[in-house]
């Protein structure tokens, strides 16, 4: 990104935002993509940092908010592709802080939701580096909302589970009680799960999940390239393959997906006609889910 494209943001002093001190590391969530979802704290951090160490999924429009003199360092980790090692990233931000830099570690979504921010924070404590955490809008909530899907709704669910589709080995997450999850969580939001979607669906169905339960796959959530595929658990793997949808994507499983027929606000901007009562609850019909 050229220096000329950067636009520093000056925030009013009455907000009482903390000073970004030299030698500190701020672990900051950039949200799922749309710059409109940045917090004021994140925008302040971008304007104040000397160095921005950013992840692969941080939108370039967000990086453009860094100060004109800020150094931008790419530290993106993408599954299945050559990526910096986590240990090297952690050592780099520690080294920069020890040089007296104001170090912004900028992560897609929220740093503490499948973002390895906890690991980096623990390393900073061990190294004696002061740090601050600024949460961000996680993709499971923000991306679902941009697809017109609320992750909770009182007519469908009082529980939602956020899970990751793979563990440190790259295989399907092994320490999940799939039967308990299938029976106990009406809504499941799956991060980083496209690679193993078929196997995950099989485990959930074996645990008692309805094969015809609605599923939404949301790719490039909240960005201009966002795509949403509606399918079912039974057909999810085949439909994703046929559609050509690729990561990054989140997957929402459960009755809340039906609400998209009424709440697809982005679709409405493009002319989609919304359905007022997709669950049929206003006319005494049986509610969906639990």
Commentary on this structure:
The protein is of the alpha/beta class and 290 residues long. The protein folds into 2 domains: 3-137, Tetrapyrrole methylase, N-terminal domain (Cobalt-precorrin-4 Transmethylase, domain 1, 3-Layer(aba) Sandwich); 140-269, Methyltransferase, Cobalt-precorrin-4 Transmethylase, Domain 2. Helix content is 27%, strand content 17%. It is built from 10 helices and 10 strands. The chain has helices at 40-48, 60-63, 86-98, 117-127, 139-146, 178-184, 197-206, 236-243, 260-263, 265-269, and strands at 25-29, 51-54, 71-74, 103-107, 131-134, 160-164, 187-191, 214-219, 227-232, 249-253. A 5-stranded parallel sheet has the order 3-2-4-1-5, with helices on both faces. The protein has a 5-stranded mixed sheet with strand order 6-7-10-8-9, with helices on both faces. Helix 6 (178-184) packs across helix 7. The longest helix is centred in the N-terminal third of the chain and has 13 residues, at 86-98. The chain is globular, with a radius of gyration of 21 Å. It comes from Tistrella arctica. Keywords: Methyltransferase, Porphyrin biosynthesis, S-adenosyl-L-methionine, Transferase. Residues 25-235 form the Tetrapyrrole methylase domain. Pfam families: TP_methylase. Pathway: Porphyrin-containing compound metabolism; siroheme biosynthesis; precorrin-2 from uroporphyrinogen III: step 1/1.
